[in-house]
Write a structure and sequence with these properties.
about 525 residues, 5-stranded antiparallel sheet, mainly beta, 3 helices
Length: about 525
Amino acid sequence: MRKSKLLAITLCCLIFAVSWVVSVEAAEITAPSNLTAVAVSMSQINLTWTDNSNNESGFKIERAEGSNGYTEIAVVDNVTAFSDTGLAANTTYTYRVRAYNSSGDSDYSNEYSATTTGAVPAAPAYLTATAVSSSRIDLTWNDYSSNESGFKIERKIAGGSYTQIATVGANATSYNDTGLADNTKYYYRVLAYNSSGNSAYSNEVNVATGTVPAAPSDLTATVLSSTIITLTWDDNSSNETGFIIERKKAGGSYTQIATVDANTTTCTISGLAGNTKYYYRVLAYNSSGNSVYSNEVNVTTGTVPAAPSDLTATVLSSTSIMLTWDDNSSNETDFIVERKEAGGSYTRVATIDANTTSYTDYGLTDNTKYYYRVLAYNSYGDSEYSNEESATTYSSVEVLIKLYIGQSTYYVNDQSKTMDTSPLIRENRTVLPIRFIAEAIGASVTWNDSEEKVTISLKDKVIELWIDKNIARINGQYMLIDPANPNVTPIIIPPGRTMLPLRFIAESLGSKVDWDQDKQEVTVTYPAP
C-alpha cells in the first residue's frame, strides 16, 4: 500500500515536469521586429520584418484601416516579406506581424503605417495636329483628368519609334512643335502622368509640314518720278499666297511696305522722297512660311524743280494781266500757269518754256478779279506752287461823278444822288464822306472804331487812313496823304461824320480828279482815261 502511494506521487511529479517544459518551450517564440511598410502603387503595399526566432512555423499578418480594428489578412511561411495587394488608392493602412508555431503565437511586432498612392490620370483624347508652317505643327487635346502633374508629348516619323519630345504642365491642352523639317509627315501621341504613373496614350495623329515657296529673282527697280518707282521680279514658285515687299534707306533696317497677290510680278511704290536712295527686296509667302529673299536692288528717285517765287500780277488793261516770277530751279522742263476766279477752281491756262519768268494773260473779262499761281515741272514731277497772286482787270465802263462844294446833291453818270453831308474845303483840299464816291465806282468802305481807321478796298487795292493822321497805308506801304501839305488828314465833324481827302483816295483807286474853281465843281472819272 505504501509502495503504491509512493508510485502515484512520483507519477504526478513527472507529469508536472513535462507540462512545465512544454510551457517554457512555447513562451520562447520571439516576436518579429523592425516591421516596415512601403506603398509601391495605388493598390499595393510591401511589408518587411526581422525574424527573431528559430522555432516558428510562420507569421501571421494583421491590418487595420482608419479607426477600425486589426484583422488577420494573411498567414505566411518562414519568410520576412509580404506584398499586400488589391488595396484602395490613396488610403492609409496600419500593419503588425507575429510569429506562431504549434505551441502558440509570439508577441506582436511594432506597428507600421503606409498610404497607397493616388490614381493615375485619365488618358487625354481627341488629339489633333495642324501644320501651321513648314517647320511647325500645333497640337491640341482634351484633358479628361483632374489629378495629372502634366502631359508627355511623343513624336515619330514614318517607320521610326516614338520618343518623348516635351512635357507640359497640368491642365495644358496644347503644344507647338517647332524646328521641324519641311514637307515631312510626323506622328504624335500624348499621355498624362502623375506620381502614381502614366495614363494610357491618347489617339495617334499624323500631319505633314508644308513647303515654303521658291524665292523670287531678278528684282529690278525703275524710277518713274521723284516720288514713284516700279519694281518687277520673276515668280519662281507655284504655291505662294502672295509676295511681301520690303524697303530701307542707306544705313537703315528693312521694313515691310506692301503685299501683293500670288502670281504678281510688279509693284508700284509711291509717296517717296525726291533725290533719295532706296533699297528693296521681295519674298514669296504661304501658310507654311516665307521663301528666302530675292536679290537686293537700290534706286535713287529724281528731283523735281524748286518752286518759283515772288509771283506778281500787274493789270495792263480791262482784258489783260501780266505775271512775273522768280525762277529758282535749274532743272525745270517748263512752267505751268494756273488761274481761277473768286469761288472757282484753278485750271491751267498756259505752259511756258524753261527759264521764262513772265507771262501775259489776254482775253480776260473787264472789272474781274483773277487769281494766279505758277509751278515748275520736269519728268520727275511738279514743284510746289508759287505764292498766289490776284489782280482785277480795269472796268471798260466809265463812271463820271460830279459833286459841288457845300452841296449834298451829286451826279453819277448824270443821275442825281444825295449825300448826307456836303463836301467841304479843308487845308485847301476837298474832304467828303468817301462812301458815296467809293460805292459809285465799286469800292467797299469799312470803319474800325477802336483804331479810328477807314479801309477802302477796290480790286487789288487796299487803302487805310486814320483820323487826324497825315499818313496812309496802300497795300501795306506807308506814305504821306499829301506831300505838299502835311496838314491834310481825315477828320470828324459834328455830329460825328467822317470826312476824307477826295483826291488822294480817288487817284489811288485809279480815278482821274478835275477841279473847276469857278463852279466849285469836282469831277471824278473812273477808270482814269
